[in-house]
Amino acid sequence: MLAHISTEYYVRLEQGRAPRPSAEVLAGIAAALRLSAAESDHLHLLAGTAPSRTARHCREVRPSILDLLERLPQTAAFVISAAFEVLAWNALAAALMEDFAHVPAPDRNLARRAFLGSTRQDGTLYGVPDAAEFRHHVVMDLRSAVARYPADPSITGLVDELRNGSPEFALLWERHDVQAAPMLTKTFRHPVVGDITVDCDSLALSDRDQHLVLYTASPGSSDANALALLGVLGAETFTTTGFG
User: Are 169 and 179 in contact (CB under 8 A)?
Assistant: First the structure.
């Protein structure tokens, strides 16, 4: 009843006497059995059908990750969703980029900020000169996110908003690129402490389809000293870091 199929048909499926079930039938069975997303995908794989994607991307950050953000020494760290929403951050990330606590939730979306939002007077995002490279990366990841969450209005709506509001996004979207060059380093032109070049690492939190982004500098370098100074000054000293 929960799967919206008859008992007789379900028995025949279990006994291997029924025709191969459709994706819709499998989605109903997966929901009735309370399968996880990974288990549901595996069920579809075994049956040779494409999974029916009805899920929405996760915005809740695991408590252990929230604790980890605060325990990372000399590291600017934040968590983004599959839709590039900044979900959580530590104090050093707030000092390096901006204090997201003072930003309305819709404006914490880095994709929206990169293509439609305010930038510094020099045209950069958070003073980073590789904004074009980042925007290319955003388009690639959003194309993949749409494939994973075709029924999630927060993702499909964001893509529609960017396509309608940004000619650059629309052009990049039509190129159908599937892989962007990884961003291994990034230089922030900070208005208080000057240029800071950091190593960029993005760790996948696969269970929630989120990423933990880490910005670090080589120990003993001038960049590390600048990060340490930012940690002392804190975000409250300059609440408009990203927008000059």
Answer: no
